C-alpha cells in the first residue's frame, strides 16, 4: 500500500505539473484525510470483529450540526449572562469547550445505543447501523431545517483550521523520533526477555531511521506552509492510543479473537457481549471527534455533512489490509488506506475533474480493494 501511495502521488504530481506536491496542497490533503482517519481508526475494530457500521457518516454529520447549533443559537446568550466580565474571546473559548464536550457525549451515547442493540438485543449490526443512518440523517434535516448553521466561533474553527507554530512542530518531531528509537530498543529488549525470536538489529534500526526521515520530511513540508495542522496532530495521538489498545491490552486481544473465531473466544471465557458493546461505543466516540473536526473545517453545520463518510472509512480500512471477514487488520494500515483515498480525491480535485467521475473512481477503488481481500483469503485458504 505504501508503494501504491507513492505511485499515486507521482501520477498526480505529473498530471498537475507539480501542483499536487505544493506544501499548501499537501497540508490540505492531510487535513482532509484526518476527518476520515478518525472514522477509519474505529472502523478497524468494528470490521475486525466481523461487524459493520453504516451509520458513522450520519453520526459525524449529526454531531457536526449539533455543535454548530449550540454555538450559533443556544450558548452565546447564557454564557454572556453568566460571565459578563469576561472578554468575547473568553466567551468563545467557553462556548467551544461546552460544544466539544456535548458533541463527544452525543456521539458516545449513540455508539453505546448501537452496541447495546447489537450485543444485548441480538439485532444484526447491518440493520442497527443502517437504521441509525436513516435516523440521524433525519435528525440532521430536523436541526438544520435545510439551512446552513453559522456562525462558528474562532476557537472552535482552530480545532480544524489551526496550525502548530513551526518551532513547536520541530520539537514534536524530535520527541517523536526519540520515541521511535526508544520503542525499537524496548521492543527488542522485551522479545529477548521472553525468548521470542529477534530480527536483525540492523533491520530494526534501519526501519527506525527510515521512519524518522519520513517524520523530518513531513514536518519540513508542513512548515514550508504554516506548520503541522492541529487536526492531523490530534489524529496521530488518537491513532497511537487506539493502536496501543488494539495491540497491548486485553480488550484489543479480545477484539481480534472475536473476529478470528467467535465460538472459540466464547469458550475461552471472553465476554462477547461486553466487548462488542465497547467496540461500537468507541466507534461512536471517534465519529463524534470526526464531526467536531468537520464543523471546524467547514466553519458551519451543513445538511450534507458526513455524507458517504462510512463508505470512505470502510474503503480506507479494506485498502489498508483489514479483512471484511474479521480477525485481521491494523490501525496503521487503515491510516495508509485513508491517505490513499484522500490522495485520490485531492488529486482529482486539483485536476478539476467532474464530481461524478470522482465518485465513479472511488467506487471502482472500493470494489478492487474488496476483490483483493477476497483473492487473498482464497489464496491463503
List the helices and strands and how they pair.
Elements: H1 2-15, H2 23-48, H3 56-74, H4 76-82, H5 88-119, H6 125-144, H7 154-161, H8 166-193, H9 201-225, H10 230-248, H11 250-260, H12 262-267, H13 272-298, H14 309-319, H15 331-350, H16 355-380
Helix pairs in contact: 1-15, 2-9, 2-10, 2-13, 2-14, 2-15, 3-5, 3-6, 3-13, 5-13, 7-13, 8-9, 10-11, 11-13, 14-15, 14-16
Q: What percentage of residues falls in helices of 4 or more residues?
A: over 70%
Query: What's the β-strand tally?
Result: 0
CATH fold naming: ABC transporter involved in vitamin B12 uptake, BtuC
Give the C-alpha Rg. Answer: 21 Å
- The secondary-structure element order is HHHHHHHHHHHHHHHH
By CATH reckoning, the class would read: Mainly Alpha
Distance between the termini: 22 Å
Mean pLDDT: 91
Structural class given helices, strands, pairing?
mainly alpha
Unreliable stretches (pLDDT < 50, length at least 5) are none
- Major beta-sheet overview: none
CATH level-two architecture: Orthogonal Bundle
Strand content: under 5%
Alpha plus pi helix count: 16
The structural domain count equals 1
Which word captures the global form?
globular
